[in-house]
User: Fold these one by one.
Assistant:
Number 1:
Amino acid sequence: MARMKYTGKTVLRMLTLFIAVSILSFLLLEASPVDPMTAYIGTDSTFSEEAKEEILRHWGLNEPPVKRFFKWAWNFVHGDWGESITYKKPVKTVIAERLKYSLALMFAAWSFSGILGYAMGILAAVRKGRLTDKLIKTFCLALQSAPTFWIGLLSLSLFAVHLGWFPIGLAAPMGKAAEEVTISDRIYHMILPAFTLSVLGIGKIALYTRQKFIEILNREFILYAKAKGESMGQIVMRHGIRNTLMPAVTVQFASFSELFGGIALAESVFSYPGIGSALTAAGLGGDVPLLLGIAVCSAAFVFAGNLTADILYLALEPRDGSFVH
Amino acid sequence: MKKCNTRTRVMIYIGFASVYLLGIFFWGLFMPESGYDVNYADKLLPPGSGHLFGTDFMGRDMLMRSVKGISVSLLTAALAAGISSVIALAFGVTAAVFGGRLDSFVNWCVDLFMGIPHLVLLILISFMLGRGAKGVTAAVAFTHWPELTRVVRAEVISVRSSQYVRAAYKMGKSRFSVAWGHVIPHVLPVYLVGVILLFPHAVMHEASITFLGFGLPAEEPAIGVILSESMKYIAMGKWWLMLFPGLMLLLAVMLFDIIGENLKRLWNPDSGNE
Amino acid sequence: MGNKIVQEKENVPVLSVEELSVSFNMYQKGLRRENLEVLHKLSLSIHAGEILAVAGASGSGKSILAHAVLGILPGNASTRGRMLYKGQPLTEKEKRRLRGREIAFIPQSVDYLDPLMRVGRQVMGVRGTKERQRELFGKYGLEEGTEKKFPSMLSGGMARRVLIASALMEEASLIVADEPTPGLSKELAEETLQNFRELADAGCAVILITHDIDLAFRAADKIAVFYAGTIVEIAPAKDFRAGKEALRHPYSRAFLEALPQNEFRPLKGFQPYAGKLPKGCLFAERCSERSGMCMGEIPMRKVRGAEVRCVHAR
């Protein structure tokens, strides 16, 4: 019962935060020196006076900011996210088209970094203080310190240009019609960007898992397991994974924020047509409706990750009596 | 056996890292523009040949440009560390000392800023300020406080509720003397480590957002600009344009991490225990 | 089977520990290292069918002895001295091979069970069988659903029985039990001791580590008195039951006097800390019989059929 109440409270808190994030994004864009009319229709527009008048009324552009926010929010929940200046299409269409590319990319990077990072963390903890541990730690520190876009440039230069193993960019072979693009084309074009994006997360999850498993290894039940003749491998399989996997998955879910930030950089390097490159284009092109739409989507994405993390965290409680929130 | 070899080693790490970072910073700061002058005669030279890091498409020396670029990044990061750490200190202490609604409010603000991907926030702020150097610097400077706020808050709360602080109050010590004698000496090391660990994030974010094109104008030798330019030459096989500047950036970020982590070990010996 | 046990009892001890010292490499403030010796030249031996109680105040390093025997000391520990198992050197490699098989450990509490693993699987360990586990649960009166429970759902008594059952999964010759009774009711403590007696009668050697000397009296055949990281006296339990005159070491006598049912006279002063140990006899500071001879090396010697570490003992 208490758990239900806690979950309810968490969801409520996250919802208010999500709304606040939308307001914040709105205000930040509102405060920009760009003329609102220009922000909504762009500079080189061929709109008639009547059409301009219509947009003015629809988005409440000559009204005070508070009213304008409500106008925008009203339209937003009713599915009208405005028109993207950069792509000359409704914001919703732009986001929907690109989201599937970005989600595939993020999912690939997220799972790859999770699995590899987790394995590295377990290995480092088992070999704590030895050479393997030191190498993994240093490697993780380097990965965490490496800017995502530079890793992208590096892998582009090495694997695509010098070795020629992978294409230089885009989500599909150039000049191929959309319906001819096969799933293997997609995967082939996604490997380098996904690898680049995953680098960001490997270090974090590996170091967290290492820390957590070392903590577990210091617990009394590991001592007892050893005393009962379990080898290190058996301890890892029987107790290590059981006690560290869910916390690690939780942390991995809580890293959605960095993941979303990462796609802007990874997609820019590989001219991959996802949300990230749209975000950059919108920011550089003064495309306020698209920028706002993506900002809200990114907040929703982070919100989903955090909520999953919180629920997983709570789900751990019933089995472990020693659980303290 | 040498008795304090770990301690000595930690000091050496911190010393070397600090000297390198300060060296790069001042070298770049006082570098005359002639250091990276345009010289079309020497364009796109590979590394070696009189230019350790090679030259770019305008014949500018990449070593000099990189040093200058890192130096500019460090300056931005210092500003970010300064502003964000003050915000974090004020917020964290307020939340911990007054508790209740103020505490909830501060936590809510922290969650709010963490509820949106950092890079998206940076883009929004820099967009609001009309891009360019001013926008990027402000964006980086005003967005690095949430995590440090949490750290400061947690630390102040734990010190305040500790036995000896309560004992000191019972002994009739004034608020000021307790703060001076107990709270500050405990919170300060953690805070300083937090401020130093803020540098690598700030450096990286500045470079990232400049790379995307929001930051310094293309003619400035910022590390993000350099790497962004290098992208056009990668397909031509001019790998040195992105390798060395990137390595320097990586090194700077790592060294800040090393300084921070080692200071932590020095001030908190528990973490140094096996 | 009986004959074999008698033979072993007369001949080779199941475990003998000779001059065992254990020290830890610790970091002090500011990352300075220090070597801290916690067990000093400790000797003991135990035969099949015997219960040896190792008794001493809390914090005197008794558990470290147990961990040293099992080879589960932390990585920063180093040991000197020698251990023999059934006459053969008990090296770290041998410990790895024997623990869980022939050398079983019974830990203090339910904290030694993985909180996320069902009890049945934990008792089975890595080599046990479901049948044996069911058989043992039956023997110790653990109802059927117990094997499906998580450790946090066990009561104190159930946890104790589960831990004992774990030790018997395989054919153990030596059982090391670390503080098996605190937190148990009087009846449960009695029951636990009865279990140990049965195990010893079946041919096991049982080392019972406890701070409860009262318990040691009733259950053990021999009692080793532990003080500041070493054993100061090993004597038959009957000597302890006979009263302080029968004992040899001043600390054993003081320990006895401090019991509620005796004079209840606590001993003045504190146990010296590891790292700040006095020279010579570790008990000298608190001893009424102290003399110049106590400052030298104090060996373990035989006095009236028992072993004692005191130059004055007669």
Note: Chain B has one domain: 6-32+51-272.
Number 2:
Amino acid sequence: MIAYDKTLLDNVYIDQEANRLKESGFISKEQYKDLSHELPKLKSQNNLFIRIGFFILGCLLYSSICGFISLLGLGAMDNGYLFFIYLFAFIGFGAKEYMSQEMKYFGFGLDDAFILGAILALLIAVGLTFEQNYDPNYLAVIIVLAIASSIAYLRYLNTSLVLLACIGITGSAAYLIFEYLIIGKAILPFAMMLLAGTGYLFSKKKLQNLAFPYYYNGLKLAKGFCLILFYLAGNYYVVRELNFSLSGEFYYNAVSPEIPFALLFWAFTFIIPAVYLIFSLKSKDRMMLWIGFLALCFSFFTFRMYHHVLPPEVALTIGGLAVFAFTYFSIKKTKYNETGITFKADRFTNPNAFSNLQALVAASQFGLKPEVKVEESPMEFGGGGFSGGGSNGEF
Amino acid sequence: MANLEEQAAQTLFDKNLIKEEQFTAIKAYRALNIFSVHNELKFLLYLSMLLFTSGVGILIYQNIDTIGHTVLLGLLLLVTLTCFYFCFKNHPGFKKDEAPFPNPLYDYLVLTAVILSCSFVGYLQFQYQTFGTHYGLATLIPTIISLFCAYYFDNKSVLSIGITGMAAYLGLSVDPKHYFENEMFNNTTLSYIGLAFGLTLLLWALYAIKINLKKHFNLVYLTFSLHLIGIACIVNLCDDFWFPFGLVLGIAAYYFYNLSFQIRSISLFIFTVLYGFVGMNIFFVQMLTAIHFDDFFSIFLFTTPFYFIGTILGFIKLIKHFNKKTSDDSIR
């Protein structure tokens, strides 16, 4: 099933482990260098930016090849333009296959561009085929998306394909339930939760029994996707607004109506993040911790959307103080833990991962703005060019 | 996960690529089963600081009429001074190289203090016109405070605030928000100033290397400098006098390209290559329009795939070169 050379692929994962060991200081840089030279492996770009750069270049290359062919076939293309789009998809898949087998590219950026471009071309082709022969049918497109990207992932292991596959599967399930079931609209949130829960349990089970590292990243991503989907499917705001927009706005003076089982969804909104947080700390699952945290933030947003308890500025100040107090005590509590949950930096995670990001955020949030020109507003705004500690934007 | 990692480590050991004592050390460390929430808690600290300062900023703004300016200013000053007091008390003092706080908590306290003092000066000027019509002063003073704090307390976030302050004094907005909205230079004069400011930052960074002053700040300076020069040149490339800026960008890109090897910064390398590539393409297009190439447009279209293949090969070569030069085998 996997398109790559097995030994070379294995060496990619071994090299990753060696790199982790180098970063965490267990082996020296020289040792890693020698070791990495000794292992023949697939060519991949480990730096995200470079990979994105190659991805963009790959997209340009792919589209220019498509343009080239279209120019050649311009005369013959009267009604048969669909054939060309299928041809483009075929070229994309072919190029990816060639890159994986002959050029030994794995996650190089270029190959990502070709496989994603091929899937996109295939979707367009399928969509147009249906539009020519029947009504436009989105279901076929999403189902093709789900199937094509799942198979492509199983063969080529590019993690971005998992995301596409998850979106495809979720989309087709939602479409099927919504369009073809009479009570579909009422049970849509519960069906989505069921789907996400099943997907989570499935990927978790698979992850535990994984003998080879090939599908590890994809399963992890699928797990995260299921967690997010599960939360969003139960979130009050999402359910209410989606229900509103799916049923047409003109009914209710553009104010979304209350939904049935509101209390249940409110419960979901707050219990799910809490469960995520507690469970993630227990099972030491970092991704779940972050998802839980973001979900909690979204829950607060949801709550404030419908219940205006405090003015935002007071909420911000109090929230800041509360978070500070919580963090301060957590740091105090976990500072000296040698095992388990601890504030001590793990050797395997970079303790300064956020430092550059923080500098960036500080510059964008609190960066000083140039003075407003005196001629424009001589009196009022003379010195008001400041961001004033975050009060920028709103006023 | 740990399972698979251990498996990989075992393979490394089996292949005789790591030594036995290294392997046992790795195993022992993994057996501790550490779940470090270091980054998460630091992030929460940062978040709380953001929330608090934003909230206080808005509160002050809204309650100017009710509480009274003097009280508010006094309160603000009090909080700021308290923050500074704790910072000074707990900091080991100025050093030419890295001088971190014993506790990461204080880094955020410094940031809070600096932001609050910026608010304080801004408020003072807004309400009492302390600096009269010398509006520049109202920007310059917070800038000086932030630069001083950045160097004294060794804080990169504060440094970036200081740099935006300097740019603001010159009339530039160099924060990322404006960068992404492509609003950095809305007229030509500003872009010249930006170019000059970028070059100044570059010179300062080089001088700092020479006198060994806070070398780890150089990445911040060079990043600002590269983006300023790159954007200013590209903006001008699309204008009437494009030719000299193409040359400037070419020289700057070559210089930064070499510099990125020296300081081993992958982000600098990538953005240099990116600006160079974008600039080169615009330069080509300008050349083509200058010699009225429109007539051969379709021939030109046929060569694009080969052009892209050529650029891809070029990029691969550049990255290999970077890998070789930095002697660290792979870019991560």
Note: The CA atoms of residues 19 and 129 of chain B lie 69 Å apart.
